[in-house]
Design a protein that fits this description.
Blueprint: H1 3-14, H2 18-37, E1 47-58, H3 69-74, E2 85-89, E3 93-94, H4 97-119, E4 123-126, H5 140-145, E5 147-150, E6 153-156, H6 163-167, E7 178-181, E8 184-187, E9 200-205, H7 212-230, H8 247-253, H9 259-267, H10 287-296, H11 316-322, E10 329-334, E11 342-347, H12 356-375, H13 385-398, E12 406-407, E13 413-414, H14 417-434, H15 439-455, H16 459-472, H17 477-495
Antiparallel strand pairs: 1-2, 1-3, 1-4, 1-9, 5-6, 7-8, 9-11, 10-11, 12-13
Helix pairs in contact: 2-10, 2-11, 4-12, 7-12, 7-13, 8-16, 12-14, 12-15, 14-15, 16-17
Protein name: Glutamate--cysteine ligase
GO molecular function: ligase activity, forming carbon-nitrogen bonds
InterPro entries: GCL_type2/YbdK_subfam (IPR050141), GCS2 (IPR006336), Gln_synth/guanido_kin_cat_dom (IPR014746), UCP012666 (IPR016602)
């Protein structure tokens, strides 16, 4: 798509009547509530799915690389924000032994030929939390901030050509378009800095849609402990660090999951004049309240939405509005046909993981936890929302070193990490067995994460230790980070499809 065509699409979005769009979304939300009450969004069983984002690097140098759009189409991956991004989604499957096996096999079935095909063009697809090596001959600052003005519209040079991405930089909403982290300060004219980060996103479809608030309440309370296990983004590209900080201080002050702050800083307003779009969500008293929260969220990019032939096109404006409802855990209501209509929880805190099995382990453990905690009405339900939120942000900064609060099955409060994860993993195993998995199979999904907790090691800690050791040997920070990243990619090349992160240790 040419720059003038893209600019025309952005201007078309700018011309949409925001108030009329919001009225349509609110009207559709009322119809959606009626369908939920009528049972249209119920399922006979729990169902799971997974989104997996990757970025591309040069197979020889390890530096970030733009993926030709034709190649992305050829391997069957979806476009994401940056030209270096790719995304795949699994088909929804029942939460049982065969469904989880199908999830893992589908990921491998798509990744294996994609890796082979991109390899012919010297491209390596990487599953990670944040890239750190910019394209050869460019700085990360230039790559993330490069933009042009086309017919009065600001367009990011290295961003995919989806009009909604570019419209975010051309609206009245005061999107921050910046990054603020320890010793990092970046300001851009577009939301392109968000393309630093990549994630996995497990989905859990609720059997009975009106029960979504109960499942959602538990999802918020396991968010901190699960994020602490999954942290994988302790370092930025080296040229983003401030010149006035020494290498040892940068390493010492590093947060272990900078993906959280990047997403919030880039998309949230940089003043107090508007509500944050990216945030830890509230508890909901009813499924209707969850739908109302989407409706009440400020619209950034209203667009003329054409109704198609899908069942959920009856809620097309609501669905479009939901696309910028950026909560770390969020309710989703959709389905291409009426029998496939579903209400689900999308769990968004987790960064990309070192291997497929690690990603599926998080998916299985999350699903197992929701199954057990809701069925036994676990006392952690009574944890204050503020405590769950504090757990979440503490985990993003410190990983497994964070002081995480949990309420045990006996109703007692604890911060003992072994007790916290002992209960979590036991509940996850029980939930998977409740769904028909044999004990050995359930333990197979839990084991990769249990070993992280037992060893007090995460991908972020592995990266941090690697860089810290190099800096201690007087290796310049940039070389230390790039050396760590090269080691990460090399390990992943050997284990992505058939191993786990703990195989690296």
């Amino acid at each position: 798509m040419s720059g003038s065509e893209l600019a025309a699409r952005v201007r078309a979005a700018q011309a949409v009547d925001r108030e009329a769009f919001d009225r349509r979304a609110a009207e559709e939300a009322e119809r959606l509530k009626a369908e939920v009450r009528d049972g249209t969004f119920d399922n006979t069983e729990a169902i799971v799915g997974l989104e997996l984002e990757l970025y591309a690097v040069d197979a020889r140098s390890g530096s970030l690389k733009r993926v030709p759009r034709g190649l992305l189409d050829l391997i069957g991956f979806e476009k994401e924000l940056g030209l270096h991004n790719a995304e795949m989604q699994t088909s929804p499957q029942p939460l049982n032994e065969h469904g989880l096996v199908a999830q893992e096999h589908e990921l491998k079935a798509n990744l294996a030929p994609a890796l082979d095909r991109t390899g012919r063009d010297d491209i390596r697809l990487v599953s990670d939390g944040m890239w750190t090596v910019p394209p050869t001959g460019e700085t990360a600052t230039d790559y993330l901030c490069d933009s042009v003005e086309q017919d009065g519209v600001r367009i990011a040079t290295n961003m995919s050509d989806a009009a909604r991405y570019h419209t975010m930089a051309n609206t009245d909403y005061p999107t921050g378009m910046r990054v603020e982290a320890p010793h990092v300060s970046l300001s851009a004219d577009t939301v392109m800095p968000e393309s630093l980060i990549t994630s996995i996103q497990p989905h859990y479809q609720i059997p009975h849609a009106p029960d979504l608030p109960e499942y959602f309440r538990y999802a918020l309370r396991v968010a901190g402990p699960l994020l602490a296990l999954g942290v994988n983004a302790p370092f930025f590209p080296p040229d983003l660090y401030d010149d006035d900080a020494d290498d040892e201080t940068i390493v010492e002050d590093a947060w272990l999951e900078n993906r959280i702050t990047v997403f919030e800083d880039v998309l949230n307003p940089d003043d107090d004049g508007a509500a944050d779009k990216v945030r830890f969500p509230p508890d909901f008293d009813s499924v209707e309240a969850a739908i109302d929260d989407v409706v009440a969220d400020e619209t950034i990019v209203p667009m003329d939405v054409e109704a198609g032939q899908r069942f959920d096109d009856a809620f097309a404006h609501f669905r479009h509005k939901h696309g910028s409802y950026w909560r770390w855990i969020r309710p989703v209501f959709d389905g291409p046909t009426e029998p496939q209509a579903n209400a689900r929880i999308e769990f968004r805190p987790l960064p990309g993981q070192p291997t497929v099995r690690d990603a599926v382990s998080f998916q299985a453990v999350f699903a197992g936890l929701l199954t057990t905690l809701t069925s036994i009405e676990h006392p952690v339900r009574a944890m204050e929302w503020e405590t769950a939120r504090e757990n979440f942000y503490a985990a993003s900064r410190e990983g497994l070193a964070a002081d995480l609060t949990w309420i045990t099955s006996d109703g007692e409060e604890t911060t003992d990490l072994d007790h916290v994860y002992g209960e979590l993993f036991e509940a996850a195993r029980q939930g998977l067995e409740t769904q028909g998995l044999p004990t050995d199979a359930a333990r197979r999904y839990v084991r990769p994460l249990r070993e992280r907790a037992d060893r007090r090691i995460t991908p972020a800690r592995w990266k941090h230790d690697h860089v810290a050791a190099a800096v201690d040997q007087n290796v310049p920070l940039a070389e230390a980070i790039w050396g760590m990243q090269s080691a990460y990619v090399d390990h992943q090349e050997e284990t992505l499809l058939e191993g786990t992160f703990v195989d690296w240790l």
